[in-house]
Amino acid sequence: MKLLVSALAALLLVSGAGVAVADSGPVYVALGDSRAAGPTWTSVLSGDNCGRTPDAYPAKVAAELGVSYRSVACVGATTDDVLHGQRALAIRPVPPQVDALSPDTALVTLSIGGNDIKWTNLIAPCFPLVGGDGKCRENSAMQKAIATQLGALPAEVDRVLTEVRRRSPHARIVVVGHGGYYGTHGCAPDANMSAADAPTVADFFARFNNVLRESADRAGAEYVDIAGPARGHDVCAGAQKWFLGDFPRGNTQTRHPTPLGSENMARLIVEKLRRPRS
């Protein structure tokens, strides 16, 4: 317990929070969707069907910081699910993720928003099934749908962060960015995207991440960029890829972090935490 208390005290010192150190409950709570759960095709078949694995970034963050943690991240989770619970894979109810929080929680990470806007559907025109040039850069209907979904997302992310802050007023809250999947060109069958459409895909994720960053700012939370550091590690990067593409390979789910990706996401989060807050 002394080691746990020391680690928590160090974390709070870095964050600049002057609060008492608790002797019970997890120091760190991970909330969010499958980017935080790190699911495999088999992990979603056990437990509460949320698909959490030890390869997911929360486990690696906790190990690097030397603190106790609890991840309640769940496959398919939306902002509403974080607040009110969900029926994961339509099999059994999952309690509200925020119920894992307490006034003594020192660190919270949040990966959310992708399922709210159904991001894979939004940019599907950029990835024609037969390959070639989808010309989604010329697709006005897609741009309208993106604008509509991203326009509604800030209020939903704000709701979650407000509740997190209410339940854990002294916690250091980290919002984890999205994207990182795609680079400047495609590669069949992992990413049937043309080089001409790549900037449109990148712009979508930039706009999505702006929503997350601005919500973090409003809540007094911190934002960790993933898409920028992931350049050169997209789905076309072979053994160096941080994310799996559209073609199933091994046990990692498609369009999800690889173990290497989760490891690097954890590294980026820990680097943020080890810097004093601005």
Automatic annotation (TrEMBL):
Domain SGNH hydrolase-type esterase intervals: 30-262
InterPro entries: SEST-like (IPR037460), SGNH_hydro (IPR013830), SGNH_hydro_sf (IPR036514)
Highest taxon above the source species: Bacteria
GO biological process: triglyceride catabolic process
Molecular functions per Gene Ontology: triacylglycerol lipase activity
Cleaved signal peptide residues: 1-22
Record-annotated membrane-spanning stretches: none
Disulfide-bond pairs as recorded: 50-74, 126-136, 187-236
UniProt keyword terms in alphabetical order: Disulfide bond, Hydrolase, Signal
A Pfam family per the record: Lipase_GDSL_2
Active site: 34, 256
Gene3D superfamilies in the cross-refs: SGNH hydrolase (3.40.50.1110)
PANTHER family documented for this protein: LIPASE 2, SGNH HYDROLASE-TYPE ESTERASE DOMAIN-CONTAINING PROTEIN
Name used for this protein in its record: SGNH/GDSL hydrolase family protein
Organism: Gordonia oryzae
Organism phylogeny: Bacteria, Bacillati, Actinomycetota, Actinomycetes, Mycobacteriales
